[in-house]
Every structure is written in structure tokens, then in C-alpha cells.
């Protein structure tokens, strides 16, 4: 009984709208089958060549880069619920259409369309969390969503691989069904009195704020994202070093396991102070972890490297969301979040291209050193911005309504 009471008390500490987001996120991520297995589907089922598959996968990053930048202003004007429902319902329709696409051009167009619509979701969801929470609770809420995302990310590829053995098209239909179910959940249960007082002021704001601190923060986020997204090159390096696909899966499983085990306790620890320096520490650990791959020649050494950069990823995630949600005025919260999110999309597009070029010119060791240097640059820039960021956060928090 005491345990049930404690769980009830913990649940009631967050608004009902947050739990709609949390459960919907978990449902959606558990059904995210298509994107993780898209490369396999295009190769084995659509019979496309390596270059064609690479271009199609790059459409995911391109769509995210464009869409997340547009999602923020849309969220500021129409509210998070409208944008999230548009993203999920539109993404569901595009997933279904993609299951019937044939040939390179139609498939590339379908993937780009899916990315442009579905990527509207992330800035809107981050804005929704910021609207629903405040203080240390905000960082904890971001980390709870991050935990749900990674539970789904660890489970969906395994379940999707099993389902693919029965029907590849079934993956598209089930993925679309979970997106549609989440959109319905938001339509029925998410509170609509989101941010009415902000909408008029938001319309008067510029699409691209003239805020030097924001753009410097965007640069740091891009450097961080280029480092993190370079994990995709690990598969190529593993193949070159003679490791098997199963061993590669074991190494990446370290990332998912650590996020599930450490995501909540580390996030709650960081939320106590909410200091921007945590993000610089996360970037530094990310760089150290990727540098570890340059020195690793055994499976265990690569696992240790993944463990180090995973801790950096966990540390940086929640606090970075909190910082950017409070960096700008409340009526432009979505715009600020969307612009930083678009840097992650740009990194998703550029990291494989940059990593591939470095791998060909410098070899695996040289590639990892340069990539680690990008994370070091992000850490140094975040440290340089720390005083200004902390000062602005203090002013925003002191002027926020109780």
C-alpha cells in the first residue's frame, strides 16, 4: 500500500497533460518500426543500390533540418497540441503512402514528405513540456520523456525485426497505427488552454530572432550533434575491423541499456542544480567516448567507449532542453526550441557525409580524433557562454509567474 501511495504521489506531481505526452511517446516509440529498419527494407525489399539508399536516408536529415525550424513558429502561433497532432496524423498518412512507393524517386519523395511532417513533432513536444512544468521539475520531465523514448528505441527494432519476417508492409501499417493512436490521444485528452496570452505577441515576433546568444548556442548544438550522429559510422568501422553484425548490435545495446538504467537517476540529479555547466560536461564526455573508439581494438574497449559517450549524452540531454526552453521569451519558446532542434537535423544530414570523407582520408583513428575534437569545441563554446546563459536564465526565472 505504501508503495502504491508513493507512486500515486509521484504521478500527481506532474500535470495530467504531461502524462498524455509520456504515454503517447512510449506508445509511438514502441511502434517506430520503419525508420530503424528503413535501410534494410530499401536494400532487401525495394532492391535499391547503396548510393540510392544513402540518398534516401539523407532525406530524413534534410526533412528534419527544414521542419524543426518551421515547427517552432507554428507552435508559437497555433499551440503545441495543433502542431503535434498535425505531425503525427500527417506522418501516419505518409508512412502508409510510403509502403506503396516504388522506385527511387517516389521512395525518396515519400521519405522526405514523411520527415517534413513527422519532424514537426519534436519542437512542439518540447515546448509542451516547458509549458506544463517549471523549475527543477522541467528538467526531470524532459528526462522522463527521454527515458520513454529510449525504452521504445531499444524495443522497437527487435520487435520490428521479428515482424519483418512475417510481412515488411505490416511494419508500415503498425507504425502508422501508433502515430494515429497518439494523435487521437492528444485530440481527446491534451489540455487546449495552452498559451493563449502568448499567441498575439508571437505573431509580432520575427521568424529568426536577432539573438546572438541563441545562434552561438545553435553552433554548440550543431557541433554536439555532429559528434553524436557520427555513431552511425561505427558500423562501417566494425566491418573494417572484422567484427560481426551481432557484435555491433551488442556494442550499441550498451547505449540503450545505460540510458534506461541511468537516464532517470542522472536526470533527477542534474535537475537539482539546473546549471548550464552540466551541458559542457556532457559534451566533454561525448568527445572522450568517441576518442576512445580511436584507441579501441577489442569489443570490450569499444563497449567502454560507448558507455562513456552515453553518459555524456544522458547528462547533456535534459539540461539542454531546459536551457533552450528558458533562453528566449515565453511567446517565442517554440521558435527557440525549433531552431536548436534544426541543428540536430542538420547534423543528422551532415555527420555521415563528413564521417565518410574523414574515414577515407584519415582512416578510423583519424576520423574519431577529428570527431572528438568537434565535441571538445562544443564543450569549450558552452563553457564560454555559461555566464551569459546563467544570467539570462536567472532573469527569466525571476520574472516568471509563480
TrEMBL record:
GO cellular component: plasma membrane
Keyword DNA-binding found: no
Transmembrane stretches, start-end: 7-26, 38-60, 81-98, 104-124, 145-164, 170-191, 212-231, 251-271, 278-296, 302-324, 336-359, 365-385
Bilayer disposition of the protein: Multi-pass membrane protein
Alphabetical list of Pfam families matching this protein: MFS_1 (PF07690)
InterPro entries tied to this protein: MFS, MFS_dom, MFS_trans_sf, MFS_Transporters, Tet-R_TetA/multi-R_MdtG-like
Primary localisation category: membrane
Domain of life: Bacteria
Localisation: Cell membrane
Keywords, sorted A to Z: Cell membrane, Membrane, Transmembrane, Transmembrane helix, Transport
Record's keyword annotation contains Transcription: no
GO molecular function terms attached to this record: transmembrane transporter activity
Domain Major facilitator superfamily (MFS) profile per the UniProt entry, residue ranges: 17-390
Protein name: MFS transporter
Source organism phylogeny: Bacteria, Thermotogati, Deinococcota, Deinococci, Deinococcales
Amino acid at each position: 500500500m505504501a508503495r502504491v501511495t508513493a507512486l500515486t504521489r509521484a504521478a500527481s506531481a506532474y500535470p495530467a497533460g504531461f502524462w498524455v505526452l509520456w504515454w503517447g511517446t512510449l506508445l509511438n516509440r514502441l511502434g517506430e518500426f520503419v525508420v530503424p529498419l528503413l535501410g534494410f527494407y530499401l536494400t532487401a525489399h525495394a532492391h535499391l543500390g547503396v548510393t540510392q539508399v544513402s540518398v534516401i536516408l539523407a532525406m530524413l536529415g534534410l526533412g528534419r533540418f527544414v521542419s524543426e525550424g518551421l515547427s517552432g513558429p507554428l507552435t508559437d502561433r497555433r499551440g503545441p497540441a495543433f502542431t503535434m497532432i498535425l505531425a503525427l496524423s500527417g506522418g501516419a498518412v505518409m508512412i502508409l503512402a510510403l509502403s506503396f512507393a516504388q522506385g527511387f524517386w517516389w521512395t525518396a519523395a515519400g521519405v522526405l514528405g514523411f520527415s517534413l511532417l513527422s519532424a514537426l513533432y519534436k519542437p512542439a513536444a518540447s515546448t509542451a513540456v516547458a509549458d506544463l512544468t517549471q523549475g527543477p521539475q522541467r528538467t526531470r520531465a524532459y528526462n522522463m520523456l527521454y527515458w520513454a523514448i529510449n525504452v521504445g528505441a531499444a524495443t522497437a527494432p527487435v520487435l520490428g525485426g521479428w515482424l519483418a519476417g512475417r510481412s515488411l508492409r505490416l511494419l508500415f501499417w503498425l507504425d502508422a497505427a501508433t502515430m494515429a493512436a497518439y494523435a487521437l490521444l492528444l485530440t481527446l485528452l491534451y489540455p487546449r488552454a495552452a498559451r493563449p496570452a502568448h499567441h498575439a505577441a508571437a505573431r509580432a515576433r520575427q521568424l529568426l530572432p536577432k539573438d546572438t546568444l541563441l545562434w552561438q548556442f545553435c553552433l554548440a548544438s550543431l557541433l554536439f550533434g555532429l559528434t553524436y550522429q557520427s555513431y552511425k559510422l561505427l558500423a562501417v568501422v566494425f566491418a573494417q575491423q572484422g567484427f560481426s553484425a551481432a557484435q555491433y548490435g551488442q556494442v550499441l545495446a550498451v547505449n540503450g541499456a545505460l540510458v534506461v538504467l541511468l537516464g532517470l537517476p542522472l536526470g533527477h540529479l542534474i535537475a537539482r542544480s539546473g546549471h548550464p555547466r552540466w551541458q559542457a560536461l556532457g559534451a566533454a564526455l561525448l568527445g572522450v567516448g568517441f576518442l576512445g573508439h580511436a584507441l579501441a581494438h577489442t569489443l570490450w574497449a569499444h563497449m567502454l567507449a560507448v558507455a562513456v559517450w552515453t553518459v555524456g549524452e544522458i547528462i547533456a540531454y535534459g539540461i539542454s532542453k531546459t536551457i533552450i526552453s528558458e533562453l528566449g521569451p515565453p511567446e517565442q519558446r517554440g521558435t527557440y526550441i525549433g531552431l536548436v532542434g534544426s541543428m540536430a537535423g542538420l547534423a543528422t544530414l551532415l555527420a555521415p557525409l563528413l564521417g565518410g570523407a574523414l574515414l577515407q582520408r584519415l582512416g578510423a583513428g583519424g576520423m574519431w580524433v577529428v570527431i572528438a575534437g568537434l565535441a571538445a569545441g562544443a564543450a569549450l563554446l558552452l563553457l564560454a557562454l555559461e555566464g551569459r546563459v546563467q544570467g539570462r536564465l536567472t532573469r527569466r526565472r525571476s520574472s516568471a509567474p509563480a
